[in-house]
Design goal:
Elements lengths: L7 H7 L5 H13 L2 E2 H6 L6 H9 L5 E7 L5 E7 L18 H11 L15 E5 L3 H4 L12 E5 H12 L2 H4 L4 H5 L29 H13 L4 H11 L2
Antiparallel strand pairs: 1-3, 2-3, 4-5
Helix pairs in contact: 2-4
Length: 240
C-alpha cells in the first residue's frame, strides 16, 4: 500500500504536535502511510489502540479506520490520515487544555472519585476526559477549558467509555452533540441511552472490607448456578 501524497502544510502542522502518544502515531503514519492495531500494541506498547487514535483526533488531525490482514492472516484494524482539508489545526488545542489547573478545578467540583464508578480513587489514578468526545464537540480554547465539559475517570472506566464511544453510530455518523448529551458516558447521572442503545447501566465496585460482601454474593450465585449480574438483579427486584 503506497503512501498518499499529503499537502506540505498539513505535514508541517502534524510535525508540530509534541504530545508523545499522538506524535508517535503521526510519525509512523507519515513514514508508512498507516498504522495497525498490532503495531500500536506490539511495537509501541499501546494496549488500547482506539485511545491512541483518539489522541491524534483530539489534536485536530483527521483519521479514518480501515481493515488490513494481520500477521496471523486475520483482518485487523488500521488507521490512516483522513481528508487533510478536514484538519482543525489551531482551532482547538486538544489535550494541551487538559492542564493540572483543570484537574484541580475538577477535583474541587467533583471530588476525587470516578464519575462512572462513583468510587474514590487516589488523585494520580484519575484521568481527565471530555464528557462529549473531542472530535464531536471540541472544547474551550481559553487554555483550561470549562470544567463542566470534563469528567474524572479511573483508567478502567476510561477504557470502557473509549471503546463504547468509538463504536457508537453517532460517532461514526452524524456526530450530533445532542445525542451525546443524553448518553450515559457523558452524563451518567442523567441519561436516556448508552451509545444510542436503549439500556441502563449500574457499575458497582467493592473495595477494602466490602470485598467480603462480594465474595458472599459470588458464593451464593454459584450455589444457585446463576451469573453474578442476574443474581444481583433478582436481589434488587425482590427488595424494591
Amino acid at each position: 500500500m503506497g503512501k498518499p501524497r499529503l499537502p506540505e502544510k498539513f505535514i508541517t502542522l502534524c510535525r508540530k504536535i509534541t504530545a508523545k502518544r499522538p506524535k508517535t502515531v503521526i510519525e509512523h503514519i507519515l513514514r508508512h502511510g498507516f498504522i495497525t492495531t498490532e503495531q500500536l500494541k506490539n511495537k509501541y506498547g499501546y494496549n488500547h489502540p482506539p485511545r491512541a487514535a483518539r489522541d491524534v483526533k483530539e489534536q485536530g488531525v483527521p483519521l479514518e479506520m480501515f481493515r488490513v490482514k494481520g500477521t496471523g492472516g486475520r483482518k485487523i484494524a488500521a488507521y490512516r490520515f483522513g481528508d487533510p482539508a478536514q484538519a482543525r489545526f489551531g482551532k482547538f488545542s486538544g489535550r494541551t487544555a487538559l492542564t493540572k489547573k483543570l484537574k484541580r478545578l475538577l477535583l474541587q467540583k467533583q471530588g476525587a472519585k470516578c464519575a462512572i464508578y462513583l468510587e474514590k480513587f487516589e488523585e494520580r489514578n484519575l484521568q481527565i476526559d471530555h464528557r462529549i468526545p473531542y472530535d464531536i464537540a471540541g472544547d474551550d480554547v481559553s487554555g483550561t477549558g470549562n470544567p463542566d465539559d470534563f469528567m474524572l475517570l479511573c483508567s478502567s472506566a476510561n477504557r470502557a467509555k473509549s471503546w463504547s464511544c468509538e463504536h457508537c453510530v453517532n460517532r461514526t455518523g452524524n456526530k450530533d452533540i445532542k445525542v451525546c448529551r443524553e448518553c450515559y458516558w457523558a452524563f451518567p447521572e442523567n441519561y436516556t441511552h448508552i451509545a444510542m442503545l436503549k439500556m441502563r447501566r449500574l457499575d458497582i465496585m467493592w473495595t477494602g472490607s466490602e470485598t467480603a460482601v462480594y465474595d458472599k454474593l459470588k458464593e451464593k450465585a454459584e450455589q444457585v448456578r446463576q451469573d453474578m449480574p442476574d443474581y444481583v438483579k433478582k436481589i434488587i427486584e425482590r427488595n424494591l
